[in-house]
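Render this sequence as a predicted structure.
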Amino acid sequence: MRALMIITLLTFSVVAHGADSDDTPETRLAAAEKYYATLDIAKLMDQVLAKDAASLPQDNREQARATRAGAFSLPRTDQSVAPGSGEKL
């Protein structure tokens, strides 16, 4: 029984390892760039700010939302740098 369990585990580990042949840093970077290009950052930040403002007292919500929105109004550039590498994407 023990031998059968070991053989089964080895078989599944070999199959799982072979399935990740397309998982390289380059393919991950390409997938991340594709995902980032499809995001609507402004809409996402509006949702985050609205949810955050909902936890504040009614009379402070608009001021806090405007203040935080200013902090997130950075322009998107093509000069992005890959984390930890110092290389442009």
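Summary. The radius of gyration is 23 Å. The first helix runs from residue 2 to 19.
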